[in-house]
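ok trying this again, last paste got cut off
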Amino acid sequence: MPWDTLTTLLGWCLILNAGLLAVSTLALTAARPWIVQLHSRISGLNEAELLRAYFQYLGHYKILVLVFNLAPYVALKLMGY
C-alpha cells in the first residue's frame, strides 16, 4: 500500500473515530438519566458503577484513537506523505 494511501486511510479513520467519540460523549452527557436507566436494567449495575464504566470507556477509547489514529497520521504527515 502506498504511503499516501495509508495517510488518507488514517485521516478518515481519525475523523470517524473522533466523531464517534464526540457523539458518545455528547450522548452520555445529554441523555444520562435515560441511558443510565436503560443500561441499569440491562446489566444490573447501579448508577455509580455505570458512571464509572462510562468514564473508563470514554478514556480508553480516547487513548486508542490517539495512539492508533492520530499518532501515525501525524508521523506520516511530518514525513511528507
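PB: full thing came through this time. The chain has three helices and no strands.
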